[in-house]
Design goal:
single chain; 3 helices; 11% strand
Length: 70
């Protein structure tokens, strides 16, 4: 794996966490616009963050919020 790609992934992950901390009600579409990534990529990052127990979703898909666990 290229070093630049790994750093880019880590940076995107940190930006997602930051944005969720600043706005717990942020949507995946908001993250797509903010990071200029595809919806599939955002979904993958969120899935990985959930699996690593860094974030969790509280409440329903519509009207819920993100909680940072770490």
């Amino acid at each position: 794996m290229l070093k630049g790609t790994l750093k880019s992934r880590e940076k995107s992950r940190e930006i997602i966490i930051f944005l969720m901390r600043e706005n717990p009600g942020i949507t995946q579409n908001d993250l797509v616009e903010a990071l200029q990534l595809s919806i599939k990529t955002i979904e993958k990052y969120i899935k990985n963050l959930k699996a690593a127990c860094i974030i969790r979703r509280v409440g329903p898909d519509k009207g819920g919020r993100w909680e940072i666990i770490e």
